[in-house]
Amino acid sequence: DQQVKQNSPSLSVQEGRISILNCDYTNSMFDYFLWYKKYPAEGPTFLISISSIKDKNEDGRFTVFLNKSAKHLSLHIVPSQPGDSAVYFCAASKDDYKLSFGAGTTVTVRA
Amino acid sequence: EADIYQTPRYLVIGTGKKITLECSQTMGHDKMYWYQQDPGMELHLIHYSYGVNSTEKGDLSSESTVSRIRTEHFPLTLESARPSHTSQYLCASRQDGTEAFFGQGTRLTVV
């Protein structure tokens, strides 16, 4: 039973524009959410996180929004750069235990 | 920068061989995890540990085994490799309330 879902397998965006990645979850007990970026044949690298007590967290070009009532979070990347082309994974955890991951969204930034 | 290391990065091995995938971290993290990931799919948790002598099976059934004799070391062993074990194996560690740090992964191919 997949508790974290990324329903868009791919996203293509022009360089300089905004990339918006979406993630839905089913477990209302999740209290910590993260976004990771992954290149082929490498491990995921951490981008940004948000606690369930907040609804927004910003770090440079990356902003994560959390809507607890809708069990939805999103990652905004602005402006998008060619180096942002990668697979992005949404993850969630409960009580600081194991992380559950979505299936990922492949982002392609066009020049 | 994360101090978590996996060896080997790539491994091609014949059916029936015993293999051990190594994972070490120098951050003193208590929590360590093994994930399995295939292209286009989510990361599946196969094993985790919350400290020395603690090991648990994850959400995805796996024929592999793990051990945690030292805080920094969390090896994964397959007693008899099969083609169905072909995948990318990702090791991670985490401290309370923080993100998980991943190693670079091991790409395993069983022929």
Secondary structure layout:
The complex is a heterodimer of chains A (111) and B (111).
Chain A: E1 4-5, E2 10-14, E3 19-25, E4 32-38, E5 45-51, E6 56-59, E7 62-67, E8 72-77, E9 86-93, E10 99-101, E11 105-110
Parallel strand pairs in A: 2-11
Antiparallel strand pairs in A: 1-3, 3-8, 4-5, 4-9, 6-7, 7-8, 9-10, 9-11
Chain B: E1 4-7, E2 10-13, E3 19-25, E4 31-37, E5 44-51, E6 54-57, E7 65-66, E8 76-78, E9 87-94, E10 100-102, E11 106-110
Parallel strand pairs in B: 2-11
Antiparallel strand pairs in B: 1-3, 3-8, 4-5, 4-9, 5-6, 7-8, 9-10, 9-11
Give your account of this protein's structure.
The complex is a heterodimer of chains A (111) and B (111). Chain A is an all-beta fold and 111 residues long. Chain A has one domain: Immunoglobulins (Immunoglobulin-like). In chain A, the strands form two sheets. In chain A, strands 2, 4, 5, 9, 10 and 11 form a six-stranded mixed β-sheet that branches. A five-stranded antiparallel β-sheet of chain A has the order 1-3-8-7-6, with no helix packed on it. In chain A, strand 7 and strand 8 form a beta hairpin. Chain B is mainly beta and 111 residues long. Chain B has a single domain, classed as Immunoglobulin-like. In chain B, strand 9 and strand 10 form a beta hairpin. In chain B, 41% of the residues are buried. Chains A and B meet through strand 4, strand 5 and strand 10 of A and strand 4, strand 9 and strand 10 of B.
What attributes characterize this protein structure?
heterodimer; A: 111 residues; mainly beta; Immunoglobulin-like; six-stranded mixed β-sheet; five-stranded antiparallel β-sheet; 11 strands; B: 111 residues; seven-stranded mixed β-sheet; four-stranded antiparallel β-sheet; 50% strand; globular
